[in-house]
Each structure stands twice: as C-alpha cells, then as structure tokens.
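Need tokens for this chain, all 229 residues.
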Amino acid sequence: MKYNQITKGRFLRRPNRFIAMVEIDGQAEACHVKNTGRCGELLVAGAEVWLEKSQNPNRKTAYDLVTVRKGQDLINMDSQAPNKVALEWLQGNVLPSRAYVKPECKFGNSRLDFYVEAELGGICRKIFIEVKGVTLEEDGVARFPDAPTERGIKHLQELERAVREGYEGVALFVIQMKGVRHFEPNDRTHPQFGEALRRAAKAGVRVLAYDCRVSAEEIVLDQAVEVKL
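Here are the structure tokens for all 229 residues:
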C-alpha cells in the first residue's frame, strides 16, 4: 500500500483523539489522526511523523498523520492500512486468481472484514476473516488492544459462530511495524479481550499475526509472527 504526497513533521500535542498538532516547516498545523487508539507511547512531544496530504480541498484538516518514528523504527498508525495491506496480501500471495473476496461482509450481528471463497488444495474453502491493526509494542512484544474494545470481542464471538456453522474463521493481527518477537493479547489493558481470543482459538478460529515493512511512503504485509495466547 502506497501513500501519496507525504510530508515530514514534528508532533507537538494531541488535543483530542481525532486531531494532532504538528509542526510542518516551522508552522503548527492541525492534522487528522487516522487512529483513535491511545497511541501514548508513539505520539510523544518532538516525535518525527509523516503525513499524507488530503485530496479534499474543502476538508478542515489538510493532512492525515499516518506514520511515526519510535526509536530507530517507523510505526504505521493508519487504522485503515491493515485491511488494505491484508487484501493486497490475500490477492497477491495467498488466494488463486479466481477467488471470491467480499469486504465488509455481514454475518450475525456484525460486519466482518472479509468473506473468502476459494479452491485451496483441491477443497472449496469458505472463510470469514477479521483484521485487527496492532501499533502497540512493549519490549519487543506486539500487543492488542491498546484500549478496551467491546467491538473486538463481538467480532471474535461472530468468528466462533461462523466456525460452529461450518465456515472457517481467521483473526488476523496486522502488526504495523517490524522487529517484534511475538504477538500476544494485551491482558493488562483489556483482559476480557484476551479471554475472548483464547476462547475463539479453542473453538477453532485460527489466530494469525504478521508484521509489516514500513517506510514513510509505504506499508507492506511481510512475515508471520509467533502468536502466544
């Protein structure tokens, strides 16, 4: 996934979860934050950030904040990126060309990110996939969520239901950075999500995690990361 018209800036502060004040060419600019999570360990005063220029001239904010430097690493914090890179990965690396892929597919009382029908290994597979973006890294461990998510629990419950009804269910955690050792649920922040993820795994939902190659202009799904539940 590539970005267009990227500009470098310096993070100043975050008045609310939708807006960041960023210094661009010596001027303070209000920018849209494409992630409503806390991201407290990423958005620290003085951090280098990269922003994409909006294509809408009538929008109140001219830029979207998409990437931040943490130490030596770049972290993509665009909450729309995980679904896009997952779709690129599925269509480019995993699924045959004739596969049917429906984004935002309704199942039960939720919309799951993808429904896939494809012949894999001579078998017609019917798979529901829910994608979660991961921006929280602590001591080399990627964790999700960084804030409580009742919606995330609901999605796991729907994946469980899909498995009971004969579909395959996949919870795909897209780690929006490189260099993590493994992925695990963030039991400290939201133990109920961790319980729901373990329950879903026991019910037959596949839990996968992949890291990403990140630059200022691009994010690409890359390598599988060990999942520890």
